[in-house]
């Protein structure tokens, strides 16, 4: 072939160049093809002859790695172990009680002390019973219209996507708690009006799915993550552990007004009954509901032995008194959803209504938040039996208030101050205060 004087490797290389030249020519890449053709036809200016291999006895002794030979260097002992890997940005939270100290402080600063002192002080005051269930929709609409959002009432309270929120029932001070997807809980004293009014704590290793201030003692903030249910007790300045499980938790609600017992949902479709008075961190009972997954549970406001569970497409009412490990049958099933249900809640006064949020976009409401936003949860206004609030994908960004008839009553929006989707919202039980949380950890207080 004219190249017999070349080595096998060089002949193979020229063959590849020739084939590539034909390929580029077929693609009409003329310059590349011409260049490659030149390379294949260009005569060798010289032929490099291989030098004869040296005899073995002529070669110097080949160096061998002392590491591979496992020989210890002189006066430099081998390390017994490897150096530890770089720690993750957010390491696992240890089991058991945790001090109520912000993440960026070795000990409480005066600002943190002020925040916790405020929480403790306002928890000692008994809030008056709210005027529940007023039927005057016109007056209710007027109160909604009077609620506004200003720049000073917007704050980044946690570092990541807001997954849950709770608001303290105090009528004198606005104290909000927000949980994010990294297990952080941010506490914000909105009323103090200063930069030092918000602090971040890390009581969980995973996403904070659900939070409630205790209905009988708001000095307690209960929070639920994948593996644990904790109680933040400001009087002791500690996040104590109530229940821990290898099963992945998703939501909880109190079974009694005294908040001693709770129903806890699990992602695998089961629910657990937890009694805070029982020693240890295990649940009293685990009951399979027959769901493929259980996202939310909610206890009936009047008959507290009934609870509502929402799963993939399932929304059912169960009686906690008759729960057993297997074979549980619902008292009532709310059918009709064709896609994944994100939440379901009883109305706040009588419990005669249930509002659900589903990916099938009922109420002609766009619930498709996508993977980067927390899924919407429609919540009842605790002051109004017939009205609920839910986030929206609409532009301009807004939080919408509906009647139980489906009638849109009001849209909370602010072109200047609200430019993001508030997936998670919470309403004050007695005051006209709404807090919306977005996917960047920012809270907006109307």
Automatic annotation (TrEMBL):
InterPro entries listed in its UniProt record: WD40/YVTN_repeat-like_dom_sf (IPR015943), WD40_repeat_dom_sf (IPR036322), WD40_rpt (IPR001680), WD_repeat_DNA-damage-binding (IPR050853)
Residue ranges under compositional bias (Basic residues)? 43-53
Could you tell me which SMART domains the record lists for this protein? WD40
Gene symbol here is Wdr76
Q: Which organism is it from?
A: Brachypodius melanocephalos (black-headed bulbul)
Q: Which residues form a coiled coil?
A: none
Record-level GO BP terms? regulation of DNA damage checkpoint
**Leader sequence residues:** none
Quaternary organization: Interacts with CUL4A and/or CUL4B.
- Assigned protein family: Belongs to the WD repeat DDB2/WDR76 family.
Name of this protein: WD repeat-containing protein 76
Q: Name one GO cellular component term.
A: nucleus
Q: Which keywords does the record carry? A: Repeat, WD repeat
MF terms (GO), sorted A to Z: DNA binding
